[in-house]
Here is the input.
Amino acid sequence: MAAGDGRVSPRAQSRLAWSLAGLSVLVALALIPLGELVVTVPLVAFPLVGALVISRRGNPIGWVFCAAGVALTMSWAGSAVAKHALIDQPGSIPGGRAFELVASVGQVPAFCLLGCVILLFPSGRVSSPRERFLLRGLVAAAVAGGLTYAFGEGPFEAPFQKFSNPLGIPGSRIPLTVVNVLAWLACLVFTCAAAVALVARLRRARGLERLQLKWVVYAGAVLAAVFLIGFPTFFVDDVSDAVDTLRSSAFTVAIAGVPVAAGIAILRHNLYDIDVVINRTLVYGSLTATLALVYVGSVLLLQLALGPVTSGSSLAVAVSTLGVAALFRPARGRIQAVVDRRFYRRRYDAARTLEGFSSRLREQVDLDALGSELRAVVADTMQPAHVSLWLRREPGAP
Here is the structure.
């Protein structure tokens, strides 16, 4: 039902959002038999978070999440069905070219909507003329990119290059290709500008808003790291199936992390855990990379050194595995100290102060001196506005 001023009521908005989320779940369930389990994660995450935000907070950014879920469903689900219908089992599903057309149309809008999420978070509205310009640029790029794929003449992109667009306009191949490239470029530029604007807002923000922005910046940083790590593999001609699966899985899960982090921030569920999450990511990410390099390096060196003796046995692998296992605990402690000293300086200084106070506490017998030092330690570590120390004396004590 519509509200009295002509707007859609919150209940109707909530029902519509949950309907989109339910439809996305059904599409995801339909993709599982096709072997596309990982792809279903972001397809479900975006509309579910959007429905939660709309129903519980009434935040308009929820509709951006729902729209992103629809665009990703068009792009990824359509491509999965088209691959099954045209390549894996030709003719098993009718309308394979139509599914690939839908998948192509959804590509640019899907990634432009990711930029809109970054730009509109957390209020769902732009806060400056510059952000309004970026929002209009993202919308224009999404529309232009979708139209170029819808009416572009010629074959689809790999691996569907054997099939042509049924809606392609004759003679439109070159001009629409130019527009398509410009749309992708605009999408990339405006999304990066939105990310820069988000980081700038994080530096100015305080209190609750700062914690909210930290969640999305963290999710964006993970997505960027996954993309940068996997980007060089796109230039390798013969990539193994394992590498391709790992790359695709990591990228899709990282994309799903964006709505999850935004949902935590907007719904304020476990909001204050962000510093712990960032700390653990830095520690265990660095630890994994360090141990992997040590393992690979030690295997290569031991194989060179022991090759003439062991004659190709797995002794080098076994020794390297034991060495990495022995290095786990000391390496984790050392990396934790480095991360705390670099990114959590106040916590690191507080821990060092408490360690020093604990060592002196065993030697201190003067109660007045101990009380003064305790107040100084509390003031340095906790930084309260005022410190008072109350000592309880036993009855009859002097």
About this structure: Residues 274-310 form the longest helix (37 residues). The two ends are 78 Å apart (CA to CA). The CA atoms of residues 85 and 92 lie 6 Å apart.
